[in-house]
């Protein structure tokens, strides 16, 4: 008997050590990544991080890189009005220096807090009795944290990086679901989420109503919900008025930006037709066409997706359905609860079918993972469901381990951000010509004045003399064919494919890093 107790005690200690050490290992790994400005920030980072750097350098919350910023700002100064200001502001406040390297450190801080908050709530959900911790619970806890790490480093320059942190903090409310001040806590976090990314806040808001309706009788649930809503609106307006450019300019800029994204117009055409007063296609025309619904759904939720959003969201919704069927009669406010159930389902359906996007749905990734872990460790006795959940979550962690595997290749053979910046600084470029940069190589300088983002369509509104492209941008090793009139003047590409046992481990076969080349592109094509 004593030997069995000692054996069980030792096994439980091992499990607790694993549960404690894994989040620490993830955070340390992400810190090492941040010190080396790795991975390269996603393409959409060009819309947010330069705004943060400019703000940190006392230039104002502005971004001169893209015509997108003229959509909602007719002043022509590039004020950050295409989205709420909180994400770039928080990055600027956390940056130790006003450089892209400093931005990586600031983003790491958001990573670390997210992982810590998620680890605390996941541990609480899995371990109801520390003497009865199953190895399955330990395994799925570890896999879930690695999957969450995959989600937070994927396209990390977007506002969802902050949204995930806020939602992770909100989940801590489950540790004391009947605390009287939770309405204030949730309302404050919802307001910050709204000032970060409206899509994330829309996904988050009905879940707060669900929470109050499940734990409180109707009058109290309604009072808590309305109070939280009022706090969130006050917080949102306060952030925009005190730290941003104001409620009216920001909401107008966001509306125009949203309209452009949901039309078939390019940035320059949009400016010509909308900013200059001409008509625009209906906002939902693209979204309601067959290709507009099906094609993005397949691309964003394909089984081969980097962080497996489709599989994880589908499994989380399945677990939510099981949980609903088990508890649908237990809510003290059944009418209010079912209202928020329907509202949540409608909003999820919108972001899956009408406006699909892994970034939006995965802003609440900490909740999706919590639902899966909660159901499979506390409710389900099905070996099949437990196995499927574990496999899906492990698949969702692949992106983190791929980036981890590539890191030594990046250190040994790739070009670091520091090297790229040093090379760029020594180049003799015409200061009167615009620098046409891709949306991942903008980090080589903070001199954004002459820079413009480019894509496959030649920039007519802003003619460019010099094009700078990072190796591997969109999988390209050279400029696309319709830019064949450009002449390469400087070539710093690595052209070395990272291999493990002779097998490629990147999607594009290109070494990760900041290697780039420079092209001389005349303002118009040569005849």
Quaternary structure of the protein: single chain
Reading the helices and strands in chain order gives HHHHHHHHHHHHHHHHHHHHEEEEEEE
Strand content: under 5%
Unreliable residue runs: 270-304
What is the residue-mean pLDDT, rounded to a whole number? 84
- Intertermini distance: 90 Å
What's the shape?
Answer: globular
Strand order within the widest beta sheet:
2-1-3-7-4
Main sheet overview: 5 strands, mixed
H/I helix tally: 20
Give me the Rg, rounded: 24 Å
The amount of helix comes to 55-70%
Structural class: mainly alpha
Would you report the number of β strands? 7
Describe the structure.
With 527 residues, the protein is mostly helical. Helices cover 57% and strands 5% of the residues. It has 20 helices and seven strands. It has helices at residues 2-35, 49-56, 68-71, 86-94, 100-126, 135-153, 160-171, 182-194, 198-215, 218-242, 247-261, 267-275, 290-300, 309-327, 334-354, 358-361, 365-378, 383-396, 398-413, 417-426, and strands at 435-437, 451-453, 466-470, 487-491, 499-500, 503-504, 516-520. The chain has a five-stranded mixed β-sheet, with no helix packed on it. A two-stranded antiparallel ribbon has the order 5-6. α4 crosses α5, α7 (160-171) packs antiparallel against α8 and α14 crosses α17 (365-378). The longest helix is centred in the N-terminal third of the chain and has 34 residues, at 2-35. The chain is globular. The model is unreliable at 270-304 (pLDDT under 50).
């Amino acid at each position: 008997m004593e030997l069995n107790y000692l054996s069980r005690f030792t096994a439980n200690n091992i499990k607790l050590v694993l549960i404690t050490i894994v989040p620490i290992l993830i955070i340390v790994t992400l810190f090492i990544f941040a010190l080396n400005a790795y991975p390269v920030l996603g393409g959409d980072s060009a819309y947010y991080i330069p705004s943060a750097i400019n703000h940190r350098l006392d230039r104002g919350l502005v971004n001169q890189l893209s015509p997108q910023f003229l959509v909602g700002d007719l002043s022509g100064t590039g004020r950050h009005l295409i989205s709420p200001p909180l994400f770039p502001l928080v990055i600027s406040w956390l940056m130790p220096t006003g450089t892209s390297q400093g931005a990586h450190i600031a983003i790491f801080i958001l990573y670390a807090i997210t992982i810590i908050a998620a680890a605390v709530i996941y541990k609480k959900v899995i371990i109801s009795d520390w003497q009865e911790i199953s190895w399955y619970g330990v395994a799925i806890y570890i896999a879930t944290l690695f999957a969450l790490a995959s989600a937070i480093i994927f396209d990390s320059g977007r506002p969802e990086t902050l949204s995930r942190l806020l939602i992770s903090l909100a989940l801590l409310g489950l540790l004391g679901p009947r605390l009287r001040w939770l309405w204030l806590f949730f309302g404050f976090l919802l307001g910050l989420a709204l000032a970060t990314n409206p899509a994330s806040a829309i996904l988050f808001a009905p879940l707060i109503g669900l929470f109050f309706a499940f734990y409180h009788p109707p009058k109290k649930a309604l009072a808590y919900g309305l109070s939280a809503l009022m706090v969130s609106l006050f917080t949102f307006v306060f952030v925009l008025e005190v730290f941003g450019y104001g409620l009216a300019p920001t909401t107008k800029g966001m509306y125009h930006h949203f309209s452009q994204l949901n039309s078939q117009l390019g940035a320059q055409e949009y400016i010509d037709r909308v900013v200059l007063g001409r008509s625009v296609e209906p906002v939902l025309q693209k979204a309601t066409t067959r290709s507009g619904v099906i094609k993005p759904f397949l691309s964003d939720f394909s089984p081969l997706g980097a962080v497996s959003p489709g599989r994880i969201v589908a499994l989380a919704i399945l677990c939510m359905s099981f949980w609903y069927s088990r508890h649908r009669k237990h809510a003290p406010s059944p009418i209010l609860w079912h209202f928020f159930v329907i509202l949540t389902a409608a909003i999820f359906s919108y972001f899956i079918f009408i406006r699909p996007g892994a970034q939006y749905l995965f802003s609440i990734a900490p909740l999706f993972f919590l639902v899966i872990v909660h159901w499979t460790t506390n409710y389900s006795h099905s070996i099949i469901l437990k196995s499927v959940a574990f496999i899906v979550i492990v698949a969702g962690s692949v992106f983190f381990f791929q980036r981890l595997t590539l890191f030594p290749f990046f250190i040994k053979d790739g070009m670091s951000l520091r090297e790229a910046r040093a090379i760029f600084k020594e180049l003799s470029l015409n200061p009167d010509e615009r620098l046409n940069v891709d949306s991942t190589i903008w980090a080589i300088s903070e001199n954004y004045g002459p820079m413009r983002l480019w894509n496959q369509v030649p920039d007519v509104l802003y003619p460019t003399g010099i094009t700078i492209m990072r190796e591997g941008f969109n999988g390209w090793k050279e400029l696309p064919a319709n830019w064949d009139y450009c002449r390469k003047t400087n070539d710093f590409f690595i052209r070395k494919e990272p291999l493990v046992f002779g097998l490629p481990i990147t999607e594009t076969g290109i070494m990760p890093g900041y290697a780039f080349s420079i092209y001389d592109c005349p303002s118009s094509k040569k005849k």
